[in-house]
Amino acid sequence: MATSVFRSTVGGALRAGAVAARSNTAAMFGAAGARPISTKVTLPDLKYDYGALEPSISGKIMELHHKKHHQTYVNSYNDAVEKLATAQGKADIQTQVQLQALTNFHGGGHVNHSLFWENLAPKSAGGGEPPSGALGKAIEDSFGSYDGFKSTFNAALAGIQGSGWAWLVKDTQTGKIAIKTYANQDPVVGQFKPLLGVDAWEHAYYLQYENRKAEYFTAVWDVVNWKAAEQRFA
């Protein structure tokens, strides 16, 4: 599971998620990418209606997930950054350290969800179509087939204890792809670039699938937007 401190976690995640959440992540950090600034992040608009992903993901879940859960991460991150700026102005090191967990968690939640919304698309917009191009070939080379990849990815999702995410990532040093799981709202950081993620928190599926989360893990592939992942892989 990924662990990190404030600068590496949130700063790295913002850089990794720049393609999907450019306008929001640019507001979270200054040009140096090191110190938080007072500009607030905002909830990104979706490119589709809440009900557009049915029956894979219900409109009610999408509305709650986006308008309530993601908005809470945005609000809480903004609040934590404001308090952090005040503590920095006072050279209050103890408070700055105490706020690291909040900025990590809520900043990661904002970045992860901003990427997640772009990972999804209704079938009318290409959702569910298999990966193609260089990423499609990389998946076949690494997992034998697209079905083999989905089976491995779903096994990783099922293995998450508690809340977290599974991600298809690209190793920026080797160019290879891999599946990694991250606890809670820890974002993809360091040498890895997030390509496609699935939210395994209960709020992402429970209202519709209850305790049958394996059904959600299967159904979500019918609305996965591989075009976004292919752009990140390039």
Automatic annotation (TrEMBL):
Source taxon at top rank: Eukaryota
Enzyme Commission no: 1.15.1.1
GO cellular component: mitochondrion
Matches recorded under InterPro entries: Fe/Mn_Superoxide_Dismutase, Mn/Fe_SOD, Mn/Fe_SOD_BS, Mn/Fe_SOD_C, Mn/Fe_SOD_N, Mn/Fe_SOD_N_sf, SOD_C_sf
Catalytic activity: 2 superoxide + 2 H(+) = H2O2 + O2
Keywords: Antioxidant, Manganese, Metal-binding, Oxidoreductase
Binding-site list for Mn(2+): 65, 113, 199, 203
Gene Ontology terms for molecular function: manganese ion binding; superoxide dismutase activity
Cofactors demanded by this protein: Mn(2+)
Start and end residues of each Manganese/iron superoxide dismutase N-terminal domain: 42-121
Domain Manganese/iron superoxide dismutase C-terminal: 131-232
Family (UniProt): Belongs to the iron/manganese superoxide dismutase family.
Role: Destroys radicals which are normally produced within the cells and which are toxic to biological systems.
Name of protein: Superoxide dismutase
Source organism of the structure: Blastomyces silverae
Source species taxonomy: Eukaryota, Fungi, Dikarya, Ascomycota, Pezizomycotina
